[in-house]
Amino acid sequence: MIFLFFLLSAVMVVSALFVVFSKNPVNNVIYLIVCFIAMAGHYILLNAQFLAVVHLIVYTGAIMVLFLFVIMLLNLNKAIIPQKSKTTRIMAVITGGLFFLVLLAATRQTFEILPRYPFTSTIGLVKEIGKTLFNDFLLPFEMSSVLFISAMVGAVMFGKKDDAV
Amino acid sequence: MKEISSVIQLIPLEYYLVLSGTLFSIGLMGVLFRRNIIAILMCIELMFNSVNLLLTAFSAYHSDPAGQVFVFFIMIVAAAEVAVGLSIVVMMKRNVESVDINLLNRLKW
Question: Model-level pTM?
Answer without folding.
Answer: 0.89
